[in-house]
Amino acid sequence: MKAIWKRWFNKNASAYIDSESIEEMKDAGVPRHVAIIMDGNGRWANKRSLPRVAGHYEGMKVVQRMTRFADRVGIDILTLYAFSTENWKRPETEVDYLMKLPVEFLDKFLPELIEKNVRVNIMGELEKLPKHTRNAVESAMNETKENTGLVLNLAFNYGSRAEIVQAAQYILDDYKQGRLPEGPLTEEMFSSHLMTKDMVDPDLLIRTSGEIRLSNFMLWQLAYSEFWFTDVLWPDFSEADFIEAIKEYQRRSRRYGGL
Ligand code: IPE
Ligand code: IPE
Ligand code: MG
After folding, report:
1. Average pLDDT, the chain
2. What is the dihedral of CA 175, 127, 88, 193, to 10 degrees?
3. Which residues carry out catalysis?
4. Of 51, 56, 90, 125, whose CB is crowded by the most CB atoms within 10 A?
5. Which of 211, 212, 222, 232 to mutate to test the pocket of ligand 2 (most atoms within 8 A of CB)?
6. Model confidence band, residue 16 (pLDDT cutoffs 50, 70, 90)
7. What is the pLDDT of residues 197-227, one digit of tens each?
8. In sequence order, which ranges of the chain are alpha helices (DSSP H)?
9. Given this structure, which CATH class describes domain 30-73+93-110+125-158?
10. Structural domain spans, the chain
């Protein structure tokens, strides 16, 4: 099939992927935690002579679909990199739009998330967000905090180095205040000061758009994750692509340094 038709077909048909193949995939064991670097919105828009923000809007729709998919296949945590601490370098109009997207996304999607028992978590420096963005994300976290289903963990104004430095600062403060026992610092103690403190590390990392780098994403937590890269731009990412990534993950042999 020609690539363009394949994309069209995947996008339109994959929401209806038969339950048998989903069950088969679930039986083989889906990753508990999937983290995605959603990249390529701007290029998707450029290719269509649209403004970059149109790519972000399409990208938001894919976030909804992939959240539904993760819930359907029984993934425990879906972490999505939506705005990095470096993304403030972009033109003001684009940043403003990206700050409005969570408001719009949650406005539209929160009732469904609540109905699906999804817990929304935002990982990042929320203090630096504009008020409207911060209010929207904080109330979503609040309204879903008792939910016990999928955790939708949105990395927003997130940067891994800042997170690690913040953890070191917390630990220093805790020692000074006597909140930590005397004695050597352990990996577990360190992890428990990161923004992912109650989460298992990602089993699978996906990055779209053909870039092969981490861009300051979860440097500590990805130490032993399986990586899967695709050239597909995020607004084109489909359930079929997600399945392909999971199937590839299932073929990998995770050794953690052992045999
Ligand atoms: C990812 O798409 C979304 C964000 C980083 C906010 P980009 O906006 O980075 O799109 P490209 O990489 O320029 O195509
Ligand atoms: C990483 O994408 C950040 C997000 C997906 C939110 P970027 O597009 O910002 O990363 P670089 O600049 O290509 O490394
Ligand atoms: Mg990019």
Report:
1. 95
2. 30
3. 39, 87
4. 56
5. 211
6. low
7. 999 999 999 999 999 999 999 999 999 999 9
8. 3-13, 19-27, 41-47, 52-73, 92-115, 131-144, 160-176, 187-191, 239-251
9. alpha beta
10. 30-73+93-110+125-158, 159-200
